[in-house]
Design goal:
CATH architecture: 4-Layer Sandwich
Number of strands: 14
Order of helices and strands: EEEEEHEHEHEEEEEHEEHHH
Strand order of the largest sheet: 1-2-3-6-7-8
Mean pLDDT: 96
Distance between the termini: 38 Å
Number of helices: 7
CATH class: Alpha Beta
Largest sheet: 6 strands, mixed
Number of domains: 1
CATH superfamily: Ribonuclease Z/Hydroxyacylglutathione hydrolase-like
Helix content: 10-25%
Strand content: 15-25%
Amino acid sequence: MTINMDITPEVEGFFDEATNTITYIVKDPSSAHCAIIDSVMDIDYAAGRITTTAADRLIAHIRDRELVLDWIIETHVHADHLSAAPYLQDMLGGKIGVGARIMDVQETFGKVFNEGTEFQRDGSQFDALFEDKDTYQVGEMACFAMSTPGHTPACMVHVMGDAAFVGDTLFMPDGGSARADFPGGDAGELYDSIQKVLALPDDMRLFMCHDYGPDGRAIAWETTVAAQRADNIHVGGGKTREEFIAFRTARDAQLAVPKLIIPALQVNMRAGHVPVDENGNPVLKVPVNGL
């Protein structure tokens, strides 16, 4: 696991207003190869309608620049938006990767959604399952994955040159950190994972998966390790593990369930594929009092 701060990938952020998600296209500075991180598929849950507007923006950008897509990365199994990974793969190619502890998530939510034996709980829906410190290439750029559980078991931070994509492990300094009360989440693990991120070089660029514009500020998604270490309202300034656990536990008890958690988990634990019924028709389940 080698960090090369001399490599500066080109990073383009695409903000999805409906879910406050930022998707990234990350280009190797030495070639036309790129990766997509945390893509979004649009859903009108009330109407039961899925569309591809957000994903089509990514496709247009990649085609316009004549880029080659190597990887479609999921930093974790998202509970607040649907992944567009299979659609992007069909249109552009590339491999779909996620943390190896996806199997823990599949086991947990396979039970919640009463999935049958046809639902594989071995991560085989994905092309690659990353373990901690696994390396991979985007063009000529060496990248690696850091296991950062706490928000979910399968959370990973992906480091590409001087840029790190933190998923939901951290928000912007004035946003703090993600919740840790989902099944398999753990506030103590989240604190430990954040410390791994804060141990990266001070000048490492950090890119968030979500931003909500606290106190009305403009949406933002890029900061640095040094800024997070000094100013993050939940973990900055030397806050202790015990302080964080106490705060995070109390805060999580006040949070509402994400609006799209039911469709998102069913789709995202399948690498973005919508489940189908016995006739092959796409269908979603609603577990009553299951979450």
